[in-house]
Specification:
It is built from 8 helices and no strands. With about 160 residues, it is mainly alpha-helical.
């Protein structure tokens, strides 16, 4: 494992929190879990994977569903249409590389389930987790330091 770097604290960290607060109020927990699990998995952010596995389990999500969300394209039939729309939007925004990155059909699928405003709320949630993934990766946050995790949360070889 690589050595952790100085962690972001104080005003720098607090500057990121309004997005999380907004997302917590605007997006249902189940959808936030799907977004956080998938984006963290795509970005290979081990600290965030551990954190969001822990949080999802704490809200009653079963371990099999957590793993399915992380690799949802291999488990599409386990998710409802609206959940697949959220996961597809998460993939597109997380892998962003120019305007073509979020195809109309992905955006339109989200809008058909959540409306324009709801889709923009999902976008805030996706942006928030991607920001935290990048901070944790850049600072090499140690997943072992995430409080309340279990062996499941820290098993990245699944």
């Amino acid at each position: 494992m690589v050595e952790p770097r100085k962690q972001m604290r104080g005003d720098a960290m607090r500057s990121l929190l309004p997005m999380v607060k907004y997302s917590n109020n605007a997006v249902p927990a189940e959808l936030r879990h799907l977004i956080s699990l998938r984006a963290s998995f795509l970005n290979d952010c081990k600290a965030c994977i551990a954190t969001h596995r822990r949080d999802a389990r704490g809200d009653g999500m079963e371990e099999a569903r957590i793993l399915a969300a992380e690799d949802w394209t291999s488990h599409e039939d386990e998710f409802a249409d609206d959940e697949r729309a959220v996961l597809a939007l998460t993939d597109a925004v997380t892998h962003i590389d120019g305007y073509a990155s979020v195809p109309d059909e992905v955006w339109d699928a989200a809008v058909s389930h959540f409306g324009e405003g709801g889709t923009l709320n999902l976008l805030v949630s996706i942006c928030a987790i991607n920001t935290f993934n990048r901070v944790s990766i850049a600072t090499r946050t140690d997943p072992e330091g995430v409080k309340g995790t279990t062996a499941f949360d820290l098993d990245f070889e699944r």
